[in-house]
């Protein structure tokens, strides 16, 4: 067999299908764009959903890709098996209503066996087919000429994920030889397709030919598709004769570096340490790519996955004797391994390493807290004579502190303790159920709409040049049916030519009207979206009858349109300004361009400081006042990249792209509408900055008239303040406020001094009113003080003067709230009176709750009328 590197295998696969007329699609970012059903891109087909369900018709129905993917449903298995990974690459070739079974099968065989390509030994290849798929079996036997004993029928060979496209599949297996056989010869799983190590599945070809309908039935797809998947890591292990995926050039450099950083342990020394090497190599790949694609560590969603992977890798590093931050050092190695297909990883490696290092340092602190908690629980259990830790504690350590269950059990065993694994498993199960319940119930792939997919009408968008045009009405769609006329209600219309912009790239759709030849407005355009074949499809409210093949005048609302295009230009300036101020790591994570405001989401480690926001705002305004020319160039994809244009979501661009260039400052791929020059924007003002998700921030801003009105409102508000402060000029407001703050501070100090004196006077009285109840002395009284701080001062005096065994004080505040404090001496505690338990007992009587230590506790409430009952209950408590 050929000796090929992972980079050569990947490129050869893509080159082969390119030679068969396929378009090579760039790997999409791991963070899904406009797909709420996915946490991560988890397969090659995940990026093809819009093509397979018919919502978009691709320029070329033949597509091939090597798609990076993340799956996290079985993280615990990584390192313990030969082929489980969190990050993997899926090589795939796809047909969207073009070729079908014969081409897919024969091309797969050609790629695998031809000496020009992979050159595998055909005798080592086996396939499985769905028993009812007689056509696929016939092709393998008659066209490919596979021997009958190399074709197996398997009932599970049917790909179905619920509603939407589904169909039988055919899997291809490689016989790695008897030396890999881990089963007895007569074992029922010892065959291609069974659970064994000898026959390795390297490719799955799905024949997507049915619509799985909502009622559970199946019907033939209007357009049949091919969806294939070849795991790069698996096929590389075949070419490099590796026992597992980890002994390949995709992982070994990471494993070798980890060994250098450890305490002398080498890969292969022990099955236990080998697991740690594999976990580290796998997890740092996933973390590096995820951060590079805009995700950041956090306590939720994708961020939680990254945090968990980093912490799991750190723990395994400690098992290898690596006691300091080390994962960040592996990031550039990931970049080197993958640079042929993913050069951006190496380009961003410094930033990615910084994020990983910060997270490692954070975990080292958390690790100390977790170990302290574990030690406290073990000590407490020993005092009770127990030798078993609860599964709830183990789950808390896992969920809050990132401790793998095996770490807790190992640490407990060192102290002669065991951990309740059954209880831990139940806690894990409950967490997974909560996670499933919280997921979106949106369909993972829509049922294919044959009607819209089949509409091939040519429709030209002319809105870049003009906002009024005449067009022939080509299609009327009402209730998913094509009709020739429409007289009332709503409808979707496609014209031969239109000036209406279809919603895309964050820019909202144009609004306007449609007029007939007589000058009568026959419809109001309320929305415009792209039909599957790319036409602008207008959703309209019908005012008068319309008919196909008639000519109409389409008129865009010019005021609405112009305000939108100015705000769209502002988002480009904002995007570049954020990169200038925060760093090149900042990625756009979404946008919305409305006529009255703009919204811009971007990735960042934390909130943006007021100082940085001011810098960003200043930069944008400087570019506006510089009156920079806004030019749009249409060119091919590669030329645009060479120009340095920034691509936001690479998977949506075709061969021809529009590049919007703002002076020499900003250059981005964009199909939207823009100002002619930045001076049109007039003014730019940020009105809000907030967090909207893990590592994602949002800026809301206004331009032009809206920006002026925003500042005018602020000016009016400031003038009102000046009037109330009785100053003649606004510029005097800060000085007046400063003087008032100093006066308030002085008055507060005077008040505090008077309250302290008053509290001392009350102390002299109440401390003389102790009662002896049940052998203990208690002071229980309501006092008139300002709040909890004064109660604590009284408690400190009580402690210094050794007034009684128990203290219970209550006060009603001016806000009609209640503050309670309870204190107990060592004598009282020894007698079984603990402040925390006592306050929990009486605080409900004042409509509140609280707690604390055995010697001191406090509570709040909202029922002052219950104070006397609470004080009486405290005295009764001593008699129990």
From TrEMBL:
Domains: entry comment: Consists of three domains; the N-terminal catalytic domain, the editing domain and the C-terminal C-Ala domain. The editing domain removes incorrectly charged amino acids, while the C-Ala domain, along with tRNA(Ala), serves as a bridge to cooperatively bring together the editing and aminoacylation centers thus stimulating deacylation of misacylated tRNAs.
Keywords: Aminoacyl-tRNA synthetase, ATP-binding, Coiled coil, Cytoplasm, Ligase, Metal-binding, Nucleotide-binding, Protein biosynthesis, RNA-binding, tRNA-binding, Zinc
Enzyme class, broadest EC rank: ligase
Transmembrane regions: none
Name the UniProt record assigns to this protein: Alanine--tRNA ligase
EC number: 6.1.1.7
Residues binding Zn(2+): 568, 572, 670, 674
Residues in coiled coil: 730-764
Comment on bound cofactor: Binds 1 zinc ion per subunit.
Catalytic activity as recorded in UniProt: tRNA(Ala) + L-alanine + ATP = L-alanyl-tRNA(Ala) + AMP + diphosphate
Annotated localization: Cytoplasm
InterPro entries assigned: aa-tRNA-synth_II/BPL/LPL, Ala-tRNA-lgiase_IIc, Ala-tRNA-ligase_IIc_anticod-bd, Ala-tRNA-synth_IIc_core, Ala-tRNA-synth_IIc_N, Ala-tRNA_ligase, Ala_tRNA_ligase_euk/bac, DHHA1_dom
Listed SMART domains: tRNA_SAD
GO terms (BP aspect): alanyl-tRNA aminoacylation
Function: Catalyzes the attachment of alanine to tRNA(Ala) in a two-step reaction: alanine is first activated by ATP to form Ala-AMP and then transferred to the acceptor end of tRNA(Ala). Also edits incorrectly charged Ser-tRNA(Ala) and Gly-tRNA(Ala) via its editing domain.
Predominant subcellular localization, coarse grouping: cytoplasm
Family matches, as Pfam families: DHHA1, tRNA-synt_2c, tRNA_SAD
GO molecular function: alanine-tRNA ligase activity; aminoacyl-tRNA deacylase activity; ATP binding; catalytic activity, acting on a protein; transferase activity; tRNA binding; zinc ion binding
Organism field: Liquorilactobacillus hordei DSM 19519
Domain Alanyl-transfer RNA synthetases family profile: 4-713
């Amino acid at each position: 067999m050929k000796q090929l590197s992972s980079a050569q295998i990947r490129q050869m696969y893509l080159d082969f299908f390119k030679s068969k007329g396929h378009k090579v699609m760039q790997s999409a970012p791991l963070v899904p764009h406009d797909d709420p059903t996915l946490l991560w891109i988890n397969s090659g087909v995940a990026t093809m959903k819009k093509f397979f369900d018919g919502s978009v018709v691709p320029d070329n129905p033949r597509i091939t890709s090597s798609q990076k993917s993340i799956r996290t449903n079985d993280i615990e298995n990584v390192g313990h098996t030969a082929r489980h990974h969190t990050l993997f690459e899926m090589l795939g070739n796809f047909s969207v209503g073009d070729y079908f079974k014969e081409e897919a099968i024969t091309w797969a065989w050609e790629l695998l066996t031809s000496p020009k390509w992979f050159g595998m030994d055909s005798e080592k290849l086996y396939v499985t087919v769905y028993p009812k798929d007689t056509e696929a079996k016939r092709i393998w036997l008659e066209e490919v000429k596979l021997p009958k004993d190399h074709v197996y029928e398997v009932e599970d060979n049917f790909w179905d994920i619920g509603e939407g496209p589904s169909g039988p599949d055919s899997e291809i297996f490689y016989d790695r030889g008897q030396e890999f056989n881990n089963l007895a010869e007569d074992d029922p799983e010892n065959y291609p397709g069974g659970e064994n190590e000898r026959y390795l599945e390297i490719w799955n070809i799905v024949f997507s030919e049915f619509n799985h309908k909502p009622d559970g039935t199946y019907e033939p797809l209007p357009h049949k598709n091919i969806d294939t998947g070849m795991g790069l890591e698996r096929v590389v292990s075949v070419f490099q004769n590796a026992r597992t995926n980890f002994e390949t050039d995709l992982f070994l450099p990471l494993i070798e570096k980890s060994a250098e950083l450890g305490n002398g342990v080498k890969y292969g020394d022990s099955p236990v340490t080998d697991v740690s090497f594999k976990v580290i190599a796998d997890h740092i790949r996933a973390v590096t790519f995820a951060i590079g694609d805009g995700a950041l560590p956090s306590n939720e969603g994708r961020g939680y996955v990254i945090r968990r992977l980093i912490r799991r890798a750190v723990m395994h590093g400690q098992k290898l004797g690596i006691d300091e931050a080390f994962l960040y050092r592996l990031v550039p190695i990931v970049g080197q391994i993958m640079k042929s297909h993913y050069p951006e990883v190496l380009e961003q490696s410094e930033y990615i390493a910084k994020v990983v290092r910060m997270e490692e340092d954070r975990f080292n602190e958390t690790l100390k807290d977790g170990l302290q908690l574990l030690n406290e629980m073990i000590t407490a259990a020993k005092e009770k004579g127990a030798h078993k830790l609860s599964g709830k504690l183990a789950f808390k350590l896992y969920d809050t502190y990132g401790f793998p269950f095996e770490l807790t059990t190992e640490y407990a065993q060192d102290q002669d303790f065991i951990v309740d694994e059954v209880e831990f498993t139940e806690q894990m199960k409950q967490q997974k159920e909560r996670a499933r319940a919280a997921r979106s119930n949106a369909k993972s792939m829509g049922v294919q709409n044959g009607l819209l997919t089949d509409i091939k009408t040519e429709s030209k968008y002319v809105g870049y040049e003009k906002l009024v045009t005449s067009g022939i009405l080509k299609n009327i769609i009402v209730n998913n049916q094509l009709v020739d006329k429409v007289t009332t209600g709503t409808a979707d219309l496609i014209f031969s030519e239109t000036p209406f912009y279809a919603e895309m790239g964050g820019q909202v759709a144009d609004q306007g009207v449609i007029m007939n030849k007589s000058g009568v407005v026959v419809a109001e355009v309320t929305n415009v979206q792209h039909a599957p074949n790319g036409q602008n499809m207008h959703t309209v409210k019908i005012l008068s009858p319309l008919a196909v093949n008639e000519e109409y005048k389409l008129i865009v609302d010019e005021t609405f349109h112009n305000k939108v295009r100015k705000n769209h230009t502002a988002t480009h300036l904002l995007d570049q300004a954020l990169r200038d101020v925060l760093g090149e790591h900042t990625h756009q994570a979404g946008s919305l361009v409305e006529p009255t405001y703009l919204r811009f989401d971007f990735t960042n480690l934390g909130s943006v400081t007021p100082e940085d926001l001011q810098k960003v705002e200043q930069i944008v305004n400087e570019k506006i006042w510089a009156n920079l020319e806004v030019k749009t160039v249409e060119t091919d994809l590669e030329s645009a990249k060479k120009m340095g244009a920034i691509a936001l979501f690479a998977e949506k661009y075709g061969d021809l792209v529009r590049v919007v260039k703002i002076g020499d400052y900003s250059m981005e791929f964009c199909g939207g509408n823009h100002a002619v020059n930045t001076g049109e924007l007039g003014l730019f003002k940020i009105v809000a900055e907030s967090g909207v998700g893990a590592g994602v921030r949002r800026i809301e801003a206004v331009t032009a008239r809206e920006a002026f009105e925003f500042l005018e409102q602020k000016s009016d508000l400031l003038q009102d303040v000046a009037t109330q402060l009785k100053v003649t000029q606004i510029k005097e407001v800060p000085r007046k406020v400063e003087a008032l703050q100093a006066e308030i501070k002085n008055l507060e100090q005077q008040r505090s001094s008077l309250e302290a004196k008053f509290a001392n006077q009350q102390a002299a009285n109440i401390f003389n009113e102790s009662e002896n109840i049940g052998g203990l002395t208690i002071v229980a009284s309501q006092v008139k003080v300002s709040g909890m701080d004064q109660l604590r001062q009284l408690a400190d005096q009580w402690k210094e003067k050794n007034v009684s065994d128990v203290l219970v004080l209550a006060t009603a505040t001016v806000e009609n709230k209640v503050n309670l404090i309870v204190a107990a001496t060592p004598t009282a505690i020894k007698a079984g009176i603990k402040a925390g338990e006592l306050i929990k007992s009486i605080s409900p009587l004042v409509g509140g709750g609280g707690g604390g230590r055995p010697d001191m506790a406090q509570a709040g409430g909202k029922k002052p009328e219950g104070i006397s009952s609470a004080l009486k209950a405290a005295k009764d408590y001593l008699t129990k």
